[in-house]
Each structure stands twice: as C-alpha cells, then as structure tokens.
Design a protein that fits this description.
- The chain is mostly helical.
- It has one domain (3-91).
- The chain has six helices and three strands, in the order ββαααααβα.
- A hairpin with a 5-residue loop joins strand 1 and strand 2 (12-16).
Length: 110
C-alpha cells in the first residue's frame, strides 16, 4: 500500500510501507501530529523549555536544560521518524545483459 505524495514539481512519489503498522494503515502522524518538518519546527518554536522537556520525555529522549540543543535533538528524532515512513519504492530495473565472455568467466567459479 503505497501512499502518494505530491511534490512542487507535480510529480507523484509513492512510498512503500516498511512496518506492519504501515501495512495496516498507520500514517505516522499520531506520534508528532504532523509529518511536515517546517510545521514541527514552528510548533517547537512556540514551546517553552518545560514544554520542550515534557515533549522530549514523551518521545523517550533525555530532557536537557539547553533549549536550543534540545530542539536540535527533537528535530533529529523527527527526521528519523519521517524517514521510517518515506521509503521510496524501488523500481525493478532491466537486468544487465552479460556477454558470453563474461558468462564464461563467471561460470569458472562453479
């Protein structure tokens, strides 16, 4: 079950599911409430330090006292989360045709 995503170019990219949850319809939005990086960064910018620390705890990260560093860690964790849901579908390419000499060399190892 691939999900299409429209790009600015008009090209539709599809992604293949990587987990069983994705096969059954999990879109990944439930954990962060979005899959858009700029939207997530905006929501982090609106949070106070204590809000950031609570958010980090909910995600399983160690909350630190430096807000900028904590934001960077949260963004990295968000990018990892997004990558789990955006594995491009690998298109089967035409197999490489080998000439007879190459086949003969490869056959010597049998």
């Amino acid at each position: 079950m691939a999900r299409p995503k429209k790009e600015a170019t008009g090209k539709i990219e599809t992604y293949e599911p990587t987990t069983l949850d994705q096969i059954f319809g999990d879109t990944g939005i439930s954990k962060y409430k979005t899959l858009d990086l700029s939207e997530y960064e905006k929501s982090l910018g609106e949070m106070s330090l204590s809000d950031l620390q609570n958010h980090a705890l909910k995600l399983g990260l160690v909350p630190i006292d430096n807000a900028q560093m904590l934001k960077k860690r949260l963004i990295v964790a968000f990018k990892v989360h997004i990558a789990q849901f955006r594995k491009p579908i690998v298109r089967n390419k035409k197999p490489i045709e080998l000439d007879s000499e190459t086949k003969k060399i490869l056959a010597e190892g049998r």
